[in-house]
Amino acid sequence: MSAMTGGVEDEVRYDVDGGVATITIDRPARRNALSWPVVAELRRRVTEARNDDTVRVVVLTGAGEQAFCAGADLGGMIGEDDEAVHEARGQLASLFQDLWRLGKPTIARVRGFCLAGGMGLALSCDLVVAADDAVFGTPEIDVGLWPYMITVPLCRSMPPKRALDLMLTGRRVDAAEAERIGFLSRRVAVDELDEVVGELAATLAAKSPSAMRLGRNSFYSVWDLTSDDALSMLHAMLGVATQLDDAAEGIAAFEQKRRPNWTGT
Fold first, then answer.
1. How far, in Å, CA of 240 to CA of 216, rounded?
2. CA–CA separation, 167 and 180 (whole Å)
3. Strands 172-174 and 135-137
4. Which is it for strands 20-25 and 57-62: parallel, antiparallel or unpaired?
5. Cα separations (Å) of 245 from 102, 211, 233, 234?
6. For 109-226, where are the alpha helices, taking DSSP H only?
7. Between 90 and 151, whose confidence is greater?
8. What is the pLDDT of residues 20-78, one digit of tens each?
């Protein structure tokens, strides 16, 4: 059980500036690999960002230049209690769900290796901005495993047969191929990464929080619905959205040719 407990505040940094919460996996010596405590701390920080009304956007990244996250820390993700280990494995899926249910836009800032569970974590964010030195892959098959827990974020981020290709072969793809496959939002030069992520985060943070929350929630809510069910739900949500104070303010600001003053209501 010791592998699943312990303080990891120094391994997951959390900073808020200008409405942007940056969550950093800070284990560069381990290529920012995921341990059970790190996953638990990431979930805690995502919850903190969700509950903080001053936070408008969340950026998820890894410390250093070598890796966003190289996947699971295999040596630190074993234990003697099979039931506890099985339950702990479900925490990664819960982290993905936490990100989808956050109600605020998320950006993965990627440099270096983004592999296995780390790739699943990045693709669970709304947008993925990667530097030219980024390398993606699902190498689980090469150690006799399968990327079970990340199948959903992968198949939601690219054509499913493209995801299956990566999972079957375990091959790695560079940022250029990742962009062609379609799961990158932006591909930038290494020295432009922070600037592009900062500008993108600032753009998102300047939008209406209430419109962003309802709109983003609707996107994930209708993902797996039939067209008829999705349109019915979206119709109802549009009715709710038009009653928001921010909707009235946005229309007024447009007509008066001024910047809107969002209240988030």
1. 14
2. 17
3. antiparallel
4. parallel
5. 21, 10, 21, 19
6. 117-123, 151-155, 160-169, 175-181, 193-205, 209-221
7. 151
8. 999 999 999 999 999 999 999 999 999 999 999 999 999 999 999 999 999 988 665 55
Residue 184 φ/ψ, nearest 5 degrees: -100, 140
DSSP state string for 122-136: HHTSSEEEEETT-EE
The whole-chain average pLDDT of the chain stands at 93
The CA distance from 117 to 33, in Å, is 9
Residues 6+ apart with CB under 8 A from 165: 171
Q: Do the beta carbons of residue 213 and residue 156 sit within 8 Å?
A: no
pLDDT tens readout for residues 203-212: 999 999 999 9
Residue type, 179: E
Please tell me the distance from the alpha carbon of residue 156 to that of residue 122, in angstroms, as a whole number. Answer: 12
Domain residue spans in the chain?
2-205, 209-256
Report helix, strand and coil shares of the chain as percent, to nearest 5: 50, 15, 30
Whether the predicted model's global pTM rises above the 0.85 cut: yes
Could you report the per-residue pLDDT of 36-46, keeping only the tens digit for each?
999 999 999 99
Superfamily holding 2-205 = 2-enoyl-CoA Hydratase; Chain A, domain 1 (3.90.226.10)
